[in-house]
Amino acid sequence: MSAKDEFIQIFNENIGREGAGDLLNWLESTDFFTAPASTRYHSCHEGGLVEHSLNVYHRLEQIYRQESKGIVTDEHDETFAICGLLHDVCKANFYKESTRNVKNDETGKWEKVPYFSIEEKFPFGHGEKSVFLIERFMKLTPEEAVAIRFHMGEFEKDRSTSDAYSKYPLAVMLHISDLEATFLDEKEE
């Protein structure tokens, strides 16, 4: 099963909110399923964003099930899917494939190689932009919105992160899932 197919299957099986279908249709109209997750840090290849989203989803579900002592409901399954799969929707239509010159060590000649650059069309902040884009189609709970907004953790320069983590443990779990997916599951040579 491709990463896109797995994403869509998890999305359809777990997210039943009003507007979810419209959100999925919008994602399919963007480059979300072919975009990289970053330009050089993790999953910086075609399809990396959807792979990263799946990795975060699986990590979040695992952490939450461990922390909740087995008390997980269908409502939680929807929240895992929303937060894990959609935390980085801000990266849809965000990267541009380009080329740059790199010197070939073997031949000593300069060669054009492909790479991804950032082409921000809507500078709204990372987590905030994901929340904004999701809520164009479906409502998030306050806990989901805060978790997605603060999933970058210490990579964000905002003092309110610790307040968010104190009030919403889901935000901590999503951040940990994102870190584990990035640095453990997607570590690139």
What letter string, H or E per element, gives the SSE order? HHHHEEHHHH
Amount of beta strand: 5-15%
Number of continuous helical runs? 8
Helix content: 40-55%
Q: List the uncertain runs.
A: none
Looking at the structure, what is the overall shape?
globular
The class by helix and strand makeup works out as mainly alpha
**What gap, in angstroms, lies between the N and C termini?**
25 Å
Structure summarized in a few sentences:
With 189 residues, this protein is mainly α. It has helices at residues 3-14, 20-29, 48-67, 74-86, 126-135, 142-149, 160-167, 169-185; strands spanning 95-103, 110-118.
Give a written overview of the molecule:
The protein has 189 residues and is mostly helical. The chain is built from 8 helices and 2 strands. Strand 1 and strand 2 (110-118) form a beta hairpin. Helix 1 (3-14) packs antiparallel against helix 4 (74-86).
Write the topology of this structure:
Elements: H1 3-14, H2 20-29, H3 48-67, H4 74-86, E1 95-103, E2 110-118, H5 126-135, H6 142-149, H7 160-167, H8 169-185
Antiparallel strand pairs: 1-2
Top keywords for this entry?
single chain; 189 residues; mainly alpha; two-stranded antiparallel sheet; globular
